[in-house]
UniProtKB/TrEMBL annotation:
Natural source organism: Duganella radicis
A Pfam family per the record: Penicil_amidase
Family statement: Belongs to the peptidase S45 family.
Cofactor(s) needed by this chain: Ca(2+)
Family matches, as SUPFAM superfamilies: N-terminal nucleophile aminohydrolases (Ntn hydrolases)
Protein name: Penicillin acylase family protein
Keywords assigned by UniProt, alphabetized: Calcium, Hydrolase, Metal-binding, Zymogen
Cofactor remark from the record: Binds 1 Ca(2+) ion per dimer.
Gene Ontology BP term (one): antibiotic biosynthetic process
Binding site for Ca(2+): 193, 344, 347
Active-site residues, Swiss-Prot/TrEMBL: 267 (nucleophile)
Amino acid sequence: MRKNGVLVWSKRILIAAVALLLLVIAAAWLYLRGSLAQLEGSRQAVGLETTASVARDEHGVPVISGGSRGDVAYATGFVHAQERFFQMDLLRRVAAGELSELFGERALPLDKSHRLHRFRARAELAIKAMPAADRALLDRYVAGVNDGLNALSAKPFEYALVGLPPRAWSPSDTMLVIWAMYFDLQGSQEPRELARGWFKEHATEEQRAFLAPESTPWDAPLDAQTIAAVDAVIPAAPPAWWGKPKAADAPAPAKVAAAEFVNTVGSNNWAVAGSRTDTGAAIVADDMHLGIQLPNTWYRAALQFPDGKGGQRRMVGVTLPGTPFVVVGSNGHVAWGFTNSYGDYMDFIALETDASKPDQVRTQAGWETPVVHEETILIKGAAAVKLMVRETSLGPIRETQGRSYALHWTAHLPGAVNFNAGKLEMAETLEQALAIAPTLGIPAQNFVGGDDKGNIGWTIAGPLPRRAQAGLASTYPMSVDDAAGVWQGWLSPEEYPKVVNPEHGHLGTANSRQLAGGGAQLIGDGGFDLGARTHQVRDDLAALGPKTDVKKVYAIGLDDRAVFLTTWRERAIAALDAKAVAGNAQRAEALKLLKDSWSGKADVDSVGYRITRGFMYAVYDIMYESANGELAKIDPKSTMASVSSRWPVVLARLLDQQPAAWLPPQYPDWKSLQVAAMDRVIKDLTKDGQPLSAATWGQRNTAASAHPMASAIPVLGKYLKVAPDMLPGDQHMPRVSGPTFGQSERLTVSPGHEEQGIFNMPAGQSGHPLSPYFLDGRTDWVTGRASPLLPGPARHTLTFVK
């Protein structure tokens, strides 16, 4: 009897436990459901001028319409908040240095680094200086964001995980979202400048000219076929650090061979003139390369509002959650796209001190007392930290390696962020768009545009400093007396370089040097790509022939041919001669795979591609290991690859010409060095007992994007990650792709013919894992399917009324 009683109670306890578990699951499910966006119905909204609506298609892509531009801004803010508020929150906090408030002390180093720039204070000043019309539009967007957030039945699920409520949106937060892009697109210039400072002190002028050339034969400028430059003479001797193993006490540098991408944050864009298209209108294509996570950086939308002339203006493209405008796309008359320009927009100015002038530093303006700002960093689960920021007339002071530098950055100056992007909405010609582009308050970008009349053109969008003296000097840290470090305000739009309607009927940019002529001096070199990708884009455009269409122009972005690495494969094969492979089965297998498992593309099944790529980077590691160890002491992101992205061209010259003085002494000849590099690759690819034949490029280039909170949820976190798709493409080709980096969108459109437009991106519209739009469309991006740009028929409509 007693035994039966125990059994009964055991069953009851088990049933109760299961019931409790089911209740917890049900509660969690209901909570998550409560934070899904409202798709249908009618809402009353304070401040509307007329009405607005959000009509979503089967993929969740909305047409946001309204009786005024302000009403559309309100509805856009509402939608952004309901679908992407946590993403918006992270963007404003990244810019302001406020992540520790959510994530605790682990975010403190990044917050300290970013708080140095005091962008929240700068955002408040920018708000005060805004024209009244811009401020009114911003206020309507902010009202929409806060109403959208408050309309959710439950707050976004991420806040349950961090244990804090979401903070309301403010006008300055929208400006901070734009400043966050300065970190994304120009933040690499800080460690680069420091790396180049070390390089200048540890190499002669002749060695620097050879190791960090100003151009390469791969460059494809917009104003010439090539950049006419004589190859720098290989100096009689290398720097003392050349080819040496790193010092025993040096921190482990980031191995470039293992890195996803180095100095390749950028993008591709190109345009074909109407003289070569099937409709007579220009065709513009754009794919912006960024870190890829869930949700995606961009939110697709079509915005429709009165044009002030009795008609309607429709914008279609991508928006950046946190801001009210279409960033890249078409307004029906003009289409445009951006790539990172990599101009020289940041200087390190070494400050002088004098014991007789305590608390003062000497800047270009003379002796001055830095203004001290006390910044308070709130930290979840710990006491707040006070950070003292000293700011000079040139910018905040950064201390490193016992030196004080003023960090002079375009992002710090008035006008760095504004709402002029809205003016592109009403541009009716390419000429008008090219005049607006230089006034945009964004990190300076390559602007490529085209209009419905067939015109195409390029210029820089965003602020360009007017330097007292142009040249290489500004790419290194400078003294207060260097004229190259003196900025005399911004260039006027009329002074910006432009290329309009080139004779061959196409143009494109991909983060390399844009110009061969004098306009290049106005932009400077802030870390240009070596040019292979731009070169391949240009050749692809020429190959389209006299007449083309949107689909063919779009296909260029899927070109994964390994044009750049072909000669590196030839070097690897030559190194593995009969003597090298004799008695060494692994080298013999590597040679066979280089020959047989090579399609000439970065395709997922190719082992030969992966070996070739690894070989190039292994040579880099051998040559630069010692230098990278020293640079890691200065900044974890400082490397010789950041000194110059053109290093593969330099190493190729050395391997081909084999100057005896540049051969590291631990190798008897250049062939031995290359074989040693190949042995490093083989060892890496066969670690853990894997056969070399299994080391495909797809195994290495496997998608690993995830939501920022994926690691915080045991078991269920896998639902916040993408499938491990093997991705074709790589960095030195149009189809840029990496496990967590690549084409954040692909857009091709002919203005006035948007119904022919093509678009895809690596994730869906929603940041919510229960939404059907969380990963919707990803398959199209992975496969490269040409899916439509315009939203389809409405499946859900949400209306806003007074």
